[in-house]
Amino acid sequence: MTTNILKQGALAALALAACMAWTSQSAWAHGDVVPQSVDTTTLPQLGPKWLDNNPYSAGPANKEALRIGSSAYNQNCARCHGLEAISGGISPDLRKLDADCMGLADMAKKQACFAEINEYYVSTTRRGRTRDGRVYMPPFEGILTQEAIWAIKTYLETRREP
Ligand code: HEC
After folding, report:
1. Which protein residue's CA is at the shortest distance from atom 26 of ligand 1?
2. Could you read off the pLDDT of 54-112 as tens digits, one per residue?
3. What CATH architecture does domain 32-158 belong to?
4. Pocket residues: Cβ below 6 A from ligand 1
5. Which residues are within 8 A (CB) of 21 and not within 5 positions of it... i.e. 6 or more apart?
């Protein structure tokens, strides 16, 4: 009898542990947990100086940047920022990143707005986010090339909310 109860207890504990392992895994199931480097050799190379604006937003490289960017997003960002950039609410919704710029009618103001957002986007992605010693977002400097970071931006530009 006692051993039976002990057995049951052990089984319940095992089931609980398995369940918790499953839950914590499924919470991270939207992509790999370890940051993944991305092959960007098929894109026009940008050199070591960080650009102010997305060189792949328009032009012939746009399609390839989109292909690489959507896969790089899924591998590196989706687990926190959501599949297809639709945030579950914990991390910012990146579809809204340059929403304020989109509404500007004045072209010069719109360009200035995009430049500001791009700088914010690049610096956040390179450095990540740490507050009070807690890492909210890991830094991607040294993992993602400049080409990969702009390719992800290219993908995010197609996910903007209308
Ligand atoms: C481990 C989870 C995690 C991963 C992975 C992650 N982020 Fe984040 N990101 C966050 C959190 C959380 C914040 C908000 C931080 C804060 O509140 O200070 C954030 C903020 C941002 C912001 C600022 C958004 C805003 O509206 O202020 C950008 C841009 C961003 N992330 C881009 C990315 C990109 C691009 C990737 C993939 C290359 C990525 N993040 C991967 C968790 C993550």
Report:
1. 92
2. 999 999 999 999 999 999 999 999 999 999 999 988 899 999 999 899 999 999 999 99
3. Orthogonal Bundle (1.10)
4. 76-77, 79-81, 91-92, 94, 97, 121, 124-125, 129, 131, 136-138, 140, 152
5. none
DSSP codes of every residue in 9-77: HHHHHHHHHHHHHHHHHHHTTTS-SS------TTSPP--SSPPSS-TTSSSTTHHHHHHHHHHHHHHHT
CA–CA distance, 63 with 100 (Å, rounded to integer) = 25
Q: Residue by residue, what is the 3-state secondary structure of 31-44?
A: CCCCCCCCCCCCCC
Report the distance separating Cα 160 and Cα 162, nearest Å: 6
